[in-house]
Each structure stands twice: as structure tokens, then as C-alpha cells.
Design brief:
Blueprint: E1 2-4, H1 16-26, E2 35-37, E3 48-51, H2 56-67, H3 71-76, E4 80-84, H4 86-90, E5 94-97, E6 101-104, E7 112-128, E8 131-144, E9 152-156, E10 164-165, E11 167-168, E12 172-175, H5 181-184, H6 186-197, H7 207-220
Parallel strand pairs: 1-2, 1-3, 3-4, 4-12
Antiparallel strand pairs: 5-6, 7-8, 7-9, 9-10, 11-12
Helix pairs in contact: 1-6
The structure holds glutamine.
Length: 221
């Protein structure tokens, strides 16, 4: 498992998504190596890549570094990706940086991010099938999907455009939610892990799982 550029794409503790994935795998007896890729490091081949949020400048640098790396090929070959906010934007065709300039993304999905009229800052809740995804958002970009399937439907906050959040392909889970999102939504970590190993998983009963149920209870009341 590989956390990509936590020094560029690591706002709001998004690097913690890697720790959550590795720990939930280990608790199922799955041997995991977790690596963090820094600026200047070669991106290794991995089963899972984790990308977090970032400010506009660092986000642009991360896109440039990834463009020169094996990342695109590894994902085309089936590596899984969990991408948050800036990570979500970078995988798309273009994204908007300071001053409204369009900048080229990696073109791995059809998503296009432009500048919203105002920043989206606050709580974010998203219905994903039978699950609720909870977190918070802080971004200037708004994303259109160009036919790509969204991750879910927004019930609170803005996500991509006030209606849907993120996107989902066979091997990519993308969302605007920080938290870190996999600490706040253990079911999503397990969905990704289950897809990686190809079998269903027994539930865990960690403090994170209990807190998740408590958050859903409060949101439902
Ligand atoms: N820089 C991007 C934006 O403002 C992403 C922000 C983030 O990752 N939190 O839209």
C-alpha cells in the first residue's frame, strides 16, 4: 500500500487513510507493507495507492510528478486507488488552480474540475448505496463527471456539485471527504480491502467502527 506524496497531498491528516487500510488488513491477518512516497522518491508498483487533499500549488506539483511516474500504468493494470479532494481532481482531465487557470490532470478518468463560485467548507454526508459516508470538505473546485459514475448522492454539503460526490470506477474510489475518510468510514476501508483480496471480510469492532455507528445515529436523529 502506497501513500502518494503526503507532504504535498496530506491536508487534514489524509495520510491517515494509509494507516487505517494497513491496520484493518493486519487485524484480518493480511500481511501489508505500507510505504510513503516523498518528493524525489520513485513511485513503486503497489496494490493500493492513497492520495489526499492538497492546496493548489502542491497539487499541481504532485500531478507533474505522477505524470512522469509508473502510477498511470499501475492503475491501468488494476491497482486500486482511494483519492480525496485534490487527489480526485488530479486523476481527471483538467483541474483549476489559482486565478482560474485550467491545468492538465492525469486524464485517467473523464472528470473535469472548474472553480466554484464560492469555496465549499463544512460537513459532508453522502449516501453510498446502503451506507452513509461522513466527513468534511474544504475545496474551491467543482467537478463534473462526464458520464463517470458518482461515488454517491450528497445529503449534506456540496461534494462535486451539490448533488453527487466523487466518482467510482472498478478500481478507483474518489471523494471530496476528509476525515481522514477511511478512519471516519470504516465500511469504505473494508470495501476497498475486500475488493483487493477478492473475498468478503468479517466485521471488526474497533473504536472507529463504534464511532461511525454513533455518527450515523446522530445524523439520523
Ligand atoms: N486545491 C483544491 C481545491 O481547492 C483541493 C483542495 C483540497 O484538497 N482540500 O479545490
Amino acid at each position: 500500500m502506497c501513500v502518494l506524496y503526503p507532504d504535498l497531498l496530506g491536508t487534514y491528516g489524509d495520510g491517515g487513510n494509509g494507516l487505517v487500510m494497513a491496520e484493518r488488513a493486519r487485524r484480518r491477518g493480511i500481511d501489508v507493507t505500507l510505504v510513503e512516497v516523498g518528493i524525489g522518491d520513485a513511485v513503486p508498483v503497489a496494490n493500493l495507492y492513497l492520495m489526499g487533499g492538497g492546496e493548489d500549488g502542491p497539487q499541481r506539483l504532485a500531478a507533474d510528478l505522477l505524470r512522469l511516474s509508473i502510477f498511470g500504468g499501475a492503475v491501468r493494470d488494476g491497482a486500486h486507488v482511494v483519492a480525496v479532494c485534490a487527489g480526485l481532481q488530479i486523476l481527471g482531465e483538467t483541474f483549476c488552480i489559482e486565478g482560474n487557470d485550467q491545468y492538465e490532470g492525469l486524464g485517467m478518468v473523464a472528470a473535469v474540475t472548474t472553480r466554484g463560485e464560492r469555496r465549499a467548507v463544512g460537513e459532508l454526508a453522502v449516501r453510498v448505496g446502503t451506507n452513509l459516508l461522513v466527513g468534511f470538505e474544504n475545496h474551491g473546485g467543482q467537478t463534473s463527471l462526464g458520464g463517470l459514475a458518482p461515488l454517491g448522492t450528497v445529503t449534506k454539503g456540496r461534494g462535486n456539485d451539490g448533488r453527487v460526490d466523487g466518482y467510482r470506477t472498478k478500481n478507483i474510489w474518489a471523494t471530496y471527504a476528509h476525515g481522514p475518510v477511511l478512519a471516519m468510514n470504516p465500511w469504505l476501508a473494508d470495501e476497498v480491502l475486500s475488493s483487493l483480496i477478492g473475498t468478503p471480510l468479517e466485521p471488526l469492532h474497533t473504536a472507529a467502527d463504534l464511532l461511525y455507528r454513533e455518527r450515523c445515529r446522530v445524523l439520523d436523529s
